[in-house]
Prior knowledge:
By secondary structure, this protein is an all-alpha fold. The chain has 15 helices and two strands. Among the domains are: about 20-100 and about 235-295, no CATH class; about 105-230, no CATH class. Its main location: membrane.
Amino acid sequence: MTVTYTARVANARFCSFSKLLLAWKGSIYRLLYKEFLAFFALYAAISFTYRFFLHNDQKRYFEKLAIYCNHYSSLIPMSFVLGFYVTLVVNRWWSQYTSIPLPDRLMCVLTGGLQGSDERGRLLRRTMMRYASLSALLILRSVSTAVFKRFPTVDHVVEAGFMSREERKKFEGLHSPYNKYWIPCVWFSNLAALARSEGRIKDDHTLKLLLEELNAFRGKCSMLFHYDMISVPLVYTQVVTLAVYSFFLVCLIGRQFLDPTQGYPGHDLDLYVPIFTLLQFFFYAGWLKVAEQLINPFGEDDDDFETNWLIDRNFQSLFMFPAEQEVCLQVSMMAVDEMYADLPVMERDRYWNDSNPRPPYTAATLFDLRKPSFQGSTFDMATPRAPCAASGRRRATRPHCWTSSLGWRRARKRGRKKKMAKRRAQPKAPR
């Protein structure tokens, strides 16, 4: 599943990325080595045939064919086609990850909005959270091969504790030709309305907020379903695949080392092994393999999403169903049950009387203590003191190049003094 190497590149060091080239799991070598060996074997077979099984006339004809193939192979737009395709696939891959339904926001609203620490309140919160978890499980079971192998039938879902036997009868009694992952969300909304009528949800605003979070959760389930249904257009995938494969089929002939005695341009050396052609195959075919692995991240490849881990993460704590099945559900059940109204005692923090609190630094991070706080990229920029261009107005307006109000007040004061001096210097008219 997902190969994480974030800690290995946390700091930029000498050959930091180069050390990643030695990894095998999730590497391009593991994805590409079979195709690479097949390409090299075909190249070697054609080269061996050219050198040892063709007579002179056949060799001359093969050499003309090789020059022709090498000349026109550049007409295939490899970089252009592959670049757009891989960009599309990577963007789609990340969008699918952000569409995975997580119950965190829903459980926070539920534990704060649905009141009651009695058995009825606890039952409502746990059942509603289980319905949300069941909806996420049903959609992941529909799109992920790993989850489907873990829960191949509804019986396995019931046995795991996500659904009771009575709920299974209700679920299977609703006949629909479409995917029914949304049914637990409807059960959730009905229970929310029931809790509001019982007064456990205090006001309509809280109910509205809870249903909005439920709709956002259900919307992510729907988005995953549509990503699974609407693939990257098949014609685009076919064009890219044909472009890559046809290019390297042409290279099998066009990149052969020809007889140097014939004087063909660019064939002065006979190196036997086409090093740069093999590198080109490694880069372009590897680029295509990246798209092949990311186009559906809900499989079982090295870098596919950990869907079973997400299911285990979303449900925590032990609880009993009426059928006395013990189930291990994790985060969401803990939040709405064990953590409900279970708060630590409020007390004064350690910086209560400190107006300038600063958390301590360890010896390894003391150099960060001396760094000044960032106040903006222009904070320390030097400002030119050159005067601004003269304005055509007689009345002075504040120039944009003056940066301080003190300078502005001083300039106005000097202007008033000059005006008074001019008035005194003018001769008075006789009366």
